[in-house]
Amino acid sequence: MSKITTSVAPPLPTATEKLKFYGIWVAAAIVLLLLPQVFGSGGSLTTFSLIGISIIFSLSYNILLGQTGLLSFGHAVYYGLGGFLVIHAINIIGANKLPIPLPVIPLIGGVTGLFFAALLGWVSTQRSGTAFAMISLGVAELIASSALILRTFFGGEAGVSANRTKLFKIFGWSFGPQIQIYYLVAAWTLIAVIAMYALTRTPLGRMCNAVRDNPERVQFVGYNPHVVRYLAFCFSGFFAGIAGALAAINFEIANASYLGAQQSGTVLFATYIGGIGFFIGPIVGAIFVTILSLGLSDLTQVWQLYFGLIFIAVVLFAPGGITGLLMMHRPLLRAGTLRQVLPSYLLALVPTLAMIAGLVLALETIVHFTVNPGDDSHIKAFGIPFDAASPSIWAISAVLLVGGFLVARKDWVRVKEAWDKAGSIEREKDVTA
Amino acid sequence: MSAAIELREIKKSFGNIPILRDINLSVAQGERHALIGPNGAGKSTTFNLISGYFAPTSGTVLLRGEVISGLPPYQINRRGLSRSFQVTNVFANMSVWENLRCAVLWASGQRYAFWKNIDDLPQVRERTAQILADIHLTARRDVPAGLLTYAEQRALEIGITVAGGADVILLDEPTAGMSHAETERAVALIRRLTEGRTLLIVEHDMSVVFGLADRISVLVYGQIIATGTPEEIRGNPKVKEAYLGEEAA
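ok -> structure tokens follow
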């Protein structure tokens, strides 16, 4: 390597950094291995399995949205088709006693997703932006509606089911118990996450970023942006297919909801709320949204409404998602000025929470009177019982909502001031350093 | 030896409005050729036709004797023609290093590789480092391109254009909006980076044009009214009348 490269190019990772990097993956593997020892109940194992599936699905979605700048409204198509093919494959393999064990079955889902992405993606990836979004929506509607029409393959509204335990066994694992499914999902999650991370560090991965930033200029450095988008789309379909396959294996059923708009919306939610600007963003989003959707649905009837509100709040106030919010603090942490902004956070948190409490109270009351007005007005939301008919509840809600809003508005201005101050100190340090 | 770039009877209209009326232009290999003319004469349109941004309405563009008109920009680029843009056109969210590396990838044969680690490509690394040093942005290596100063962005623009090693370079107003000192630095940079290559440059700053170009073509109202050495152009009465007017007086 020439002198100029060593002096000018960014330093290659040292042996310790490499070791640290591989250490993270090893640590992740150990955590996944030990997780059932800590949370061993069937419920938590199911939750972990769903989180793993959601992580793969969200990361596959971010190959499009975050990496290549393609907003898709129909990503569930590749997830769902992967799921359906896998259910049929399990049935065929089981009926013919083929020597194919369950752990390799997700590959069938992946190849299915890849196949359909390759088939349907060529046209839609001609353009990015609105044209791509609209075509993805059209394709999604087409596939979702054919799921209800082509009954022999999709099984109509009931869907198609399979028995995963009837397959060729390895190590004597039947994959009946949830713990075995957990390990299957965990292993595939780790493999898929590593593969998708590696993809970002290849020439194709970098050109995806370039196409996201400026597809026009890409053409003038020798690349065809359409091909870059198409390849990204194919990879995204492949990993979505793996996620769909794992979901089908987990539930032993595939139905039209796998392919539908709601599934496509959920993955967009999870990815965006987690943060599309960082590789780990969708992982954070998948964990957050899965836990929230399982938890919220127990606590309130209108959990989807809260989902929508959270999504709007993230788009408006934290476009970088949860990860973006956390990463914002890294320079402050480095400069040691993080402590200066924390008090202002606490100050702002109190009225904001009051406002949210007021909002929840108002929403639950309104929902009670619009959805089931004849029922007893003593209702329970988030585990707290209250009387929706009592005027004092209405008053409390109004006070919290309006008061919280007025105080919070001032406090958030203070947060911004504290930020500016902390930021300027950090910049001064930069100059003197 | 065939010309590096040749335009034969090029016409281009947008709707019913003719922009280029009948362009014949030949740029020899290794030549530094400037294209000048008043605003709206069709200079940028000419660049867009050569680089494949548009196809001509009629006529042919040849690159080293091969027809390239009608080809998409990336295929023209792969044949060794690279252009810069009048309005800075970089990858704003990516670092300076990443910007230059993207411009190096195709030329070093990486194509759409998804099985190679980008940091394990010594050739790409070396070439990128070389360009980074050439455009004097070493200190700004890790800064997102969108946060660079205007002059730095213009330097990066030139860096991206030459990074792939194309031997025919088109620069569209590389010094527009620069201070005097910045312009001087940019000209020195252009001179150095296009050494031994063919250069076609659109430029408004006449001191840059006359200092840099071997030959000059004057484009007025969609037609080339004169081509010649700087001396010939300076002395050409038609050019004086149509364009240089005040400056020559």
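Residues 330-432 of chain A form one domain.
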